[in-house]
Amino acid sequence: MVTNSACTAISGTWFSPYDGATWTAASDVGIDHMVPLKNAWISGANTWSAAKRTVIPDSACLLT
Q1: How far is CA 3 from CA 31, 40, 51, 61, in A?
Q2: What are all long-range contacts of 34-41, with beta carbons under 8 Å and residues at least 24 apart?
Q3: I need a surface site. Which of 3, 7, 27, 48 has the fewest CB within 10 A?
Q4: Backbone angles phi, psi at 7, to 5 degrees
Q5: What's the rounded Cα separation, in Å, for the pair 54 and 59?
Q6: Domain ranges of the chain
Q7: Which carries the bigger pLDDT value, residue 18 or residue 64?
Q8: HEC states along 8-58?
Q9: Alpha-carbon distance 54 to 51, whole Å?
Q10: Residue 64 has pLDDT above 50, yes or no
Q11: pLDDT band (50, 70, 90) for residue 57
């Protein structure tokens, strides 16, 4: 995945293991959390500051 300076996905190839579909237009893909928030919480996110917990789940840059 390629992102711009705002960390927005602008190009790449995305494959769905659920239905075998492949997309190449970033606008066709809704990127969700790679790690479920509950899993992150029990893996240490419960020790993060409130500010970090607000930013991390919505950071597209962390997906690259």
Answers
A1: 13, 24, 23, 7
A2: 34/62, 34/63
A3: 27
A4: 65, 25
A5: 9
A6: 2-63
A7: 18
A8: CEEECCEECCCCCCEECCHHHCCCCCCCCHHHHHHCCHHHCCHHHHHHHHH
A9: 5
A10: no
A11: low
